[in-house]
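Researcher: We're teaching a course module on how sequence relates to structure. For the next exercise, students receive a sequence and then see the predicted structure as tokens, so they can try to spot secondary structure elements on their own. Here is the exercise chain.
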Amino acid sequence: MIESSNGAKASAILYSLVETAKANMINTFEYFNLLLTEIPQHMDDKDLRFIDDLLPWSPRVQKECPSRYKKS
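Model: And here is the predicted structure for the students to work with:
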């Protein structure tokens, strides 16, 4: 029972990230690539302000992960 609830929680988190990325009109693949390369570099950080730059609406993410469907 615990394994399935952990899986459900993980799935919900991923789904939330995908839908938030789509709502902010960013490329989901590029966004996950950015998250999975950037977050490990901060695993020992005590200061978590770097996360602000990784939110889907941040200027950095908007620049690095633009949707190919986004109208200019």
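Model: If you want an answer key for the exercise: The chain has a mean pLDDT of 90. Helices lie at 2-23, 28-38, 59-64.
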